[in-house]
Amino acid sequence: MDKESQIIKQQVVYEGKWIKVLKKDFSIGDKVIKEYECVERNKSDKVFKEFDGVSMAPILYNTPTGIKQIIIIAQFRPPAGKFMLEFPAGLVESDNLFENAERELKEETGYYMDKQSQIEELSFPNIPISVDDPGLCSGSGKFIVVKVDYKDIRNQKITQELDEAENIRVHLVNLDSQLLSSLIQLAENNGYWISTKLYTFAAGFCFSQIASKF
Amino acid sequence: MDKESQIIKQQVVYEGKWIKVLKKDFSIGDKVIKEYECVERNKSDKVFKEFDGVSMAPILYNTPTGIKQIIIIAQFRPPAGKFMLEFPAGLVESDNLFENAERELKEETGYYMDKQSQIEELSFPNIPISVDDPGLCSGSGKFIVVKVDYKDIRNQKITQELDEAENIRVHLVNLDSQLLSSLIQLAENNGYWISTKLYTFAAGFCFSQIASKF
């Protein structure tokens, strides 16, 4: 039978500027597990924020070669001390998911999203809340796939608008059956690590094309 | 021109049983950014561990309906205090990636991986290190897609072998063009959140089937 679980007790053991660490006791049925270490992002404004961030797969179409490309970034990330290949992403600042995505895409990559950026087949009335590292942190977001028109005149000469703490390089990777190996090659050539969500998107994309073979 | 970045200074500000919090100063070209808060997993054994964990998309084939399925779990995660839909995953305990995956799959879901579990088109000599939440934590892993044979006699009656701190339900979802909406429905019906890497795998899988349409 399915067991229920809930948080029974929690205490903050570290509080910083951006994050805090908590120890939580939780139940599994009648059993209690003590002092599980959890990380939480400090939220500045709980009014509109059911979740912390937005991340996106921006698909560049109308490219000169006719092959669609995915716009990704290599960002220096202090936790691992490395540049990471990642999707553009950021913390939400208002309750409009697409406005937040639009802003982050422009700031981090210089590209402008289409006004009608949603891909119909992947648009759901309720995009669920997702969590990057659920065993460690409650930090949460929503993920979307959006369109970027290469022929949009504003996308001919791109300019980033980075925060002072951001060091970000923009990369374009062909969206074809070689996507996963292209990412691995790009990472190897530059000494990058890869964010798991970019890797699994590419793995899902490539697997889809061979899934019928076994 | 590309700017270089590196960690200049770091100090531990919290040390727990499983994680620590550090404040790091890092450079962007000539500029220094101070006291970026980072989380690190405590590593018990650095000898074989370039990375912390393994996660996998286990693909069940030879099913009665003929439709392949993906084996996923809903695990109670104390950080968010919710059950999360996730890929089976775990910390590595030896240097053989597939042995670790095999053990975690058996423990968390009861299923046995194929002896020849690798899918040739997705097998790379160097699977890169990936990071779940690179802006927050250096915790790292490798992700693989593996095969599980429904007709394997051991998979006819599955039995989990859970740790005392694990509360895990096993779900099977059809691997078809509805994969993403099936996950969303499953999450909604049960009050689950979703791990971003499962969500992006499904988004990549479904996007692959419609990418040529626009």
UniProtKB/TrEMBL annotation, chains A, B:
KW Hydrolase (keyword) present: yes
Record-linked Gene3D superfamilies: Nucleoside Triphosphate Pyrophosphohydrolase
InterPro entries with a match to the protein in the record: NUDIX_hydrolase-like_dom_sf, NUDIX_hydrolase_dom
Residues in Nudix hydrolase domain copies: 68-166
Pfam families: NUDIX
The name this protein goes by in its record: NUDIX hydrolase
UniProt-recorded Gene Ontology molecular function terms: hydrolase activity
Any one Gene Ontology BP term: ribose phosphate metabolic process
Highest taxon above the source species: Eukaryota
Keywords on record: Hydrolase
